[in-house]
Amino acid sequence: MSGDSGLTIDNISMRFELPNGSHVQALKNVSLHLEQGELLSVLGPSGCGKTTLLNIVAGFLAPTEGKIRLNGHTVKGPDAERGMVFQQGALFEWMNVRDNVSFGPRMAGQSANEYKGKVDHLLEVVGLRDFKDKAIYELSGGMQQRVALARCLANDPDVILMDEPLGALDALTREKMQGLVLDLWKETGKTIVLITHSVEEALLLGERLLVMAPRPGRIHREYRLPFAERGVGADLRAVKKSEGYAETREEILGMIWEMEEEIMGRTESAQ
Ligand SMILES: Nc1ncnc2c1ncn2[C@@H]1O[C@H](COP(=O)(O)OP(=O)(O)OP(=O)(O)O)[C@@H](O)[C@H]1O
């Protein structure tokens, strides 16, 4: 398809200048195109530039080279068309659940009549219908991430960017939330980019999966996988037993292991 629709990461490089005069090449020549509605997971050893890339797509950071295009225009800064879900702690603690979720529409000048139906629907979808009036501190970690997802969706972004959104959750809650992310992806048709440190999560939540390599941060390998599609509305444990899953997991684990070993080797020889 033409570059006019979807999200294009166009030859992005990012170099951080350090106060001591040296620099870090966090990303080098990263290019990728996602059609609207594609679900991408990004995996790689610590320091390979995952968060830097997400922050550039969000418009929080300007790249040293290259550009981000969304539906034909160049990204110049943060915008509601690109929503972000962080690992934790990004909710407004002093507002209740409903006010957190309606924050974006209220800031966009919508009246309660305009946004109420949408907010109620989203709270229903993320399973928080009976928690509208609760304060954030009254909710468990998993429920707080449900609020974060609903708050992001209330802005109706084209792209949802997630930086380890489930990383702080216990295993069972995490699995439930993985199912929710897949169901929301199918229901809303949003483009989703999700960073994770978990190979299993990247396999389950990546219709496309990028393995990045460090120094400089770059795309090492890209996969197109059937597991996200299989997981929609399904038992994720069954997906983990399905054809090709274990082999792909082992292949990627081996790849990341080798990269980590190489980093350790380099670090040790530099000492
Ligand atoms: N503001 C900054 N100034 C200087 N260096 C930075 C800055 N932000 C990131 N870096 C460096 O850029 C590289 C990539 O960092 P980044 O946080 O994007 O990696 P990551 O893959 O997300 O790591 P992790 O998995 O540990 O979160 C690292 O070497 C990091 O130290």
From TrEMBL:
Signal peptide coordinates: none
CDD domains per UniProt: ABC_NrtD_SsuB_transporters (cd03293)
Pfam families in UniProt: ABC_tran
Residues of the ABC transporter domain: 7-239
SMART domains given in the database record: AAA
Molecular-function annotations in GO: ATP binding
Similarity section: Belongs to the ABC transporter superfamily.
Name of this protein: ABC transporter ATP-binding protein
Species of provenance: Thalassococcus arenae
